[in-house]
Design brief:
253 residues; alpha/beta; five-stranded parallel beta sheet; 8 helices; 15 strands
Length: 253
């Protein structure tokens, strides 16, 4: 019996999922392990089930297809299935071997599966491994451009450039926006500091601030500083003593 490849479908449109499911279930080399109706479900299944092949939509609730791949801990081979043809260039910066524009046709899916099995089983296997390894390496270096936050039953994405500062409080980190709005994120401050080191700086064990939004820096007592942010609240943040040398170097004080 030939090898079967664990395959996941991620698409927010039920007819598209059903169509793909029917077509793929007729292919003996494919083992369907599930369907995801949004980006968050897709990310969870990818990390838990570790599929070999992923048929992925781009515009989905929760997380887009690209954001799913950016956050994934496992990297399957990807076939994008989307109603839009203007993401093709960006798509091939990911571990994608094909880009299918809806409506989905049987012969087009068959070609994608044949291309995948050829890469996995034949002389191009090394090429595929290099593709996945390269993407994994790039993904680790890729800076954040937005952060997902929950608002009721919705998932919003706040732009990094619009964030004034992050404040760690017990188990959560609060995001304080330029306009004064606040959100909670489950990302720890250390993770955010590593990802945002070019644009943000730590001034306290519980404060990470946007360097581009600093308006004024004044000396405080005990080797500390008062940093005023250029946000709607004119936030004044007090640095920790252990960060005094870092702040002096940053602002040449």
């Amino acid at each position: 019996m030939s090898k079967r490849y664990r395959t996941l479908i991620a698409d927010d449109e039920p007819p598209a999922r059903e169509r793909l499911s029917i077509l793929l279930s007729e292919m003996p080399e494919i083992e369907l392990i599930g369907q995801a109706k949004n980006g968050l479900e897709a990310l969870e299944i990818i990390n838990l089930q570790k599929p070999d092949l992923l048929f992925l939509d781009i515009q989905m609730p929760g997380l887009t297809g690209f954001e799913v791949l950016q956050k994934a801990e496992h990297f399957p081979v990807v076939v994008f299935c989307t109603a839009y043809d203007d993401y093709a260039l960006q798509a091939f910066e990911t571990p994608a071997i094909d880009y299918i524009v809806k409506p989905i046709k049987e012969e087009r899916i068959r070609k994608s599966v044949e291309k995948f099995t050829s890469l996995k089983e034949n002389q191009q296997k090394e090429e595929l491994l290099q593709l996945l390894e390269k993407y994994a390496e790039q993904n680790q270096r890729r800076p954040l451009t937005s952060i997902p936050v929950r608002t009721g039953d919705r998932m919003l994405f706040v732009r990094i450039a619009d964030i004034s500062y992050f404040k760690a409080e017990e188990k959560y980190v609060t995001i304080v926006m330029r306009d004064g709005k606040q959100h909670l994120t489950e990302h720890p401050l250390r993770y955010l500091e590593e990802k945002l080191e070019a644009d943000f700086t730590r001034i306290h064990r519980s404060l990470l601030i946007n360097k581009a939004m600093i308006k004024e820096v004044n000396r405080h007592f005990a080797s500390r500083f008062i940093i005023q942010m250029d946000d709607s609240q004119h936030s004044k943040l007090i640095s920790g003593r252990n960060y005094s040398e870092q702040i002096r170097q940053l602002f040449e004080l």
